[in-house]
Amino acid sequence: MEYNNILIDYAGDIATIVINRPSKLNALNKETIRELHKAFKELDGDGEVKVILITGSGEKAFVAGADIAEFSDFSVAEGEKLAADGQERLFNFVEQLSTPVIAAVNGFALGGGLELAMACHFRVAGRNAKMGLPEVSLGLIPGYGGTQRLPQLVGKGRAMEMIMTAGMIDAGRALDFGLVNHVVAQEELLEYCKKLAKKISNNSTVAISHAIKAVNDGFKNSVNGYASEIKAFGDCFGTADFKEGTTAFLEKRKANFPGA
Ligand code: COA
Question: Residues 157-166: pLDDT tens digits?
Answer without folding.
Answer: 999 999 999 9
